[in-house]
Amino acid sequence: MNDHASPAPIAYPIRINAYLAHKKYGTRRDADVMIKKGCVTINGTRAKVGDKVQRDDVVNVTWKPRAYRYFAYYKPRGIITHSPQGDEEAIEDMVPIDGVFPIGRLDKDSFGLIILTDDGRITDALLNPAHAHEKEYEVTCRDDLPREFKTRMEHGVDIGGYVTKPCRVHIIDARRFSITLTEGKKHQIRRMCGFFGMSATHLKRIRIMNIRLDALTPGAYRAIRGEELRRFLHTLIHLPIR
User: Fold this and answer.
1) Coarse DSSP helix, strand, coil percentages of the chain, rounded to the nearest 5 percent
2) Going by CATH, does the domain composed of 134-208 fall within 3.40.50.1110?
3) Which of 71, 94, 208, 224 lies 20 to 30 Å from 230 when distance is taken between CA atoms?
4) 107 catalytic per annotation
């Protein structure tokens, strides 16, 4: 796993908003706002949108960091993560918190942990498979698990022209297992079960990195704070632990 890998080095010259985003002041859009408000200087000169930063330039920022919010939410079965159609219900219809959005997806028939936030900085950092962040699921199948299921799943199976990356599997009982992935192809776990001719009847996400579903019930949410949040952000976008 490379959860603690260092961020990619900056390739100079770099546009000032990309530089500030790389330094975790916010998204590029946030950076443009800072620049327009006169809160950024390059070598003592007020920066303009579109300016570029060279390796030896001195960039100063006088900006109070935004207080972002983070929540662990238990998405119930039947709720849509994004773009509901017709009379379908989406997460935004269920959660009375203005301004937050879900990071990633769970399909309509799957349920469990979703991260809700207003922090756009973490979207690519969490979802890009290159970062290999762990997500853990509990799965129930219609039929008994076949022999050598654990070994074959862990080594990777063909889900239609793509062989899945190595993962960890724990057998719970004859029809249930948990699986920890570092990737997230569309309907991946259901397609992995399909490789064995099996159908997953229940698929529940119980962990994203160090954030756990724990005692949350369907439709409930809790704020992510304290040491749990510090560890999450330090691993995800390399913010220092204080």
Assistant:
1) 25, 25, 50
2) no
3) 94
4) yes
